[in-house]
Amino acid sequence: MAMKSKVLIVGGTGYLGKRLVKASLVQGHETYVLHREEIGVDIEKVQMLLSFKQQGAHLVTGSFNDHQSLVKVVKLVDVVICAISGVHIRSHQILLQLRLVDAIKEAGNVKRFLPSEFGTDPARMENAMEPGRVTFDDKMVVRRAIEEAGIPFTYISANCFAGYFLGGLCQPGFILPSREQVRLLGDGNQKAIYVDEDDIATYSIKTIDDPRTLNKTVYIRPPQNILSQGEVVQIWEKLIGKELLKSSISEQEFLAIMKEQDYAEQVGLTHYYHVCYEGCLANFEIGDGAEEASKLYPEVKYTTVEEYMTRYL
Ligand code: NDP
């Protein structure tokens, strides 16, 4: 049997990153996690890193401000996965990855790089709205650097993180579902795709030693989780045994409210606009040069929307 690749996770203490560390360990990969010197006395992060070590990961020290330190850690592994921040209301550091790309290029040993993507496919968002298009534009800058450097890659298009979208019944600004009311975005009929963050990590790790995903985009589209906002609301109503009071926000109203928000909020709202009013995640067929994760890995028992939502009861 082929040896499992050694994996380095960058951004391992993050919302998605910590799940990637766990999935990598569970799937039997020798797992290295970057301990950035800059985190200093952030006790939560340090304790999390130590817990990774207790679970069998290796902690390796490095800094985005020290090229050679990155080259050194990259040389230890076969695969690099980056889950650096990319949500403006939290932190957005996507372009910092260019330094990681330089290190991977110099190290020369990496068989696969998964950059911090894990959302809407940026290659499909060339007509995205300002200011949210910055997320897609920056991710495309990183893609170009990877491809120009000839680094083997897999891009993971994970669609909607369930915690944000299901938690808030697809309403921006909410991450816990109301038992009283919901505001539908438009008619609430555009389909989107919701994925449990742990499943995103599981599928992502599955791709790294798979020749079928080399230099490809992998979309995560669990078939039962392709649902409209209205359908998500119905599932929640069934779980709580009660109908919610419904109102609706038109496209024009949504855009007008968006313009009054600060920059970081506007970025997030732009993303909700493309997903919920335009249906940008589910309105296309997966074509050449791409794969779909639940088809590639039918053995993964993914979490359905209903299963995910039981946590809010
Ligand atoms: P987080 O905000 O949780 O941050 C992840 C990690 O980034 C941090 O833990 C830290 O890692 C690292 N980081 C943050 N700031 C810096 C810095 N200045 N220098 C170096 N490293 C830094 O990220 P998320 O998990 O929310 O996002 C990961 C990816 O997922 C992004 O690409 C994002 O766009 C995408 N995403 C997609 C969503 C969707 O619905 N599809 C929703 C949310 C995110 P450490 O300290 O360990 O080095």
Automatic annotation (TrEMBL):
Entries under InterPro entries matching the protein: NAD(P)-bd_dom_sf, NmrA-like, NmrA-type/Isoflavone_red_sf, PCBER-like
Molecular-function GO terms, alphabetical: lariciresinol reductase activity; pinoresinol reductase activity
Assigned EC number: 1.23.1.1, 1.23.1.2
NmrA-like domain sequence ranges: 3-309
GO biological process: (+)-pinoresinol catabolic process; (-)-secoisolariciresinol biosynthetic process
Keywords attached to this entry: NADP, Oxidoreductase
Pfam families: NmrA (PF05368)
Coiled-coil spans in chain: none
Protein family: Belongs to the NmrA-type oxidoreductase family. Isoflavone reductase subfamily.
Binding partners and assembly: Dimer.
Protein name: (+)-lariciresinol reductase
Native organism taxonomy: Eukaryota, Viridiplantae, Streptophyta, Embryophyta, Tracheophyta
